[in-house]
């Protein structure tokens, strides 16, 4: 029942943000409020911290963590992480192409590992935010499952929440995204994450049964 409520809430929030694509009043209000609270001196450190959510960094971190889980014989969780993050990349790209919202600043093109593609990088929803949320939400998830020492587990939670927050905030401070892009990215990421952790284990078990010798 609780999961169904989360599904409804996340979909409702995402659709609410879709409403603001053609009207920037909501985004202007939030950005004006942020500009009053956040000093301009944060621009430089945020330019560095926002790189944490880049496609290159997220892909490398994901592959390293998948390798570690596979080495630890946690193949299910390695697979789950791959589906969550790489599936999330394609989900984000599909949503960007569907809504084709222009960015607040100049147009950017899709770039991975220094290679630029002739494909516009649209604004809605934020790719940096989605990638970062999905990876670090998974880190929170496996920390809960496998880390027994409370202090270390809480530290893992804190680092993960910090990384998600700072990347999401940096995208708005650097005017790379509208606030509604960030909110939409977080809401759809929560939905995708929950679907993956609920569906992937069941599919793996079903596949294992079909492959088992009769």
From TrEMBL:
<dbReference type="InterPro" id="IPR036938">
    <property type="entry name" value="PAP2/HPO_sf"/>
</dbReference>
<feature type="transmembrane region" description="Helical">
    <location>
        <begin position="52"/>
        <end position="71"/>
    </location>
</feature>
<feature type="transmembrane region" description="Helical">
    <location>
        <begin position="154"/>
        <end position="174"/>
    </location>
</feature>
<feature type="domain" description="Phosphatidic acid phosphatase type 2/haloperoxidase">
    <location>
        <begin position="75"/>
        <end position="197"/>
    </location>
</feature>
<keyword id="KW-0812">Transmembrane</keyword>
<keyword id="KW-1133">Transmembrane helix</keyword>
<feature type="transmembrane region" description="Helical">
    <location>
        <begin position="129"/>
        <end position="147"/>
    </location>
</feature>
<dbReference type="InterPro" id="IPR000326">
    <property type="entry name" value="PAP2/HPO"/>
</dbReference>
<protein>
    <submittedName>
        <fullName>Phosphatase PAP2 family protein</fullName>
    </submittedName>
</protein>
<keyword id="KW-0472">Membrane</keyword>
<feature type="transmembrane region" description="Helical">
    <location>
        <begin position="180"/>
        <end position="200"/>
    </location>
</feature>
<feature type="transmembrane region" description="Helical">
    <location>
        <begin position="5"/>
        <end position="21"/>
    </location>
</feature>
<dbReference type="Pfam" id="PF01569">
    <property type="entry name" value="PAP2"/>
</dbReference>
<feature type="transmembrane region" description="Helical">
    <location>
        <begin position="78"/>
        <end position="99"/>
    </location>
</feature>
């Amino acid at each position: 029942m609780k999961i169904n409520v989360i599904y409804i809430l996340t979909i409702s929030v995402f659709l609410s943000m879709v409403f603001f694509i053609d009207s920037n009043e909501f985004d202007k209000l939030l950005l004006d409020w942020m500009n009053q609270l956040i000093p301009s001196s944060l621009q430089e450190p945020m330019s560095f911290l926002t790189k944490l959510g880049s496609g290159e960094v997220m892909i490398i971190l994901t592959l390293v963590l998948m390798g570690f889980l596979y080495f630890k014989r946690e193949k299910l969780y390695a697979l789950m992480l791959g589906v969550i993050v790489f599936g999330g990349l394609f989900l984000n790209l599909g949503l960007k192409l569907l809504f084709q919202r222009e960015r607040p600043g100049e147009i950017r093109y899709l770039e991975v590992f220094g290679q630029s593609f002739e494909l516009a990088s649209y604004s809605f929803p934020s790719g940096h935010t989605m990638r970062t949320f999905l990876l670090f939400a998974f880190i929170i998830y496996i920390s809960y499952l496998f880390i027994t020492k409370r202090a270390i587990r809480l530290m893992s939670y804190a680092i993960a929440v910090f990384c998600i927050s700072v990347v999401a905030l940096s995208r708005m401070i650097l005017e790379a995204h509208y606030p509604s892009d960030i909110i939409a990215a977080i809401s759809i990421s929560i939905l995708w994450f929950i679907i993956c952790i609920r569906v992937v284990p069941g599919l793996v078990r079903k596949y294992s049964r079909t492959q088992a010798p009769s």
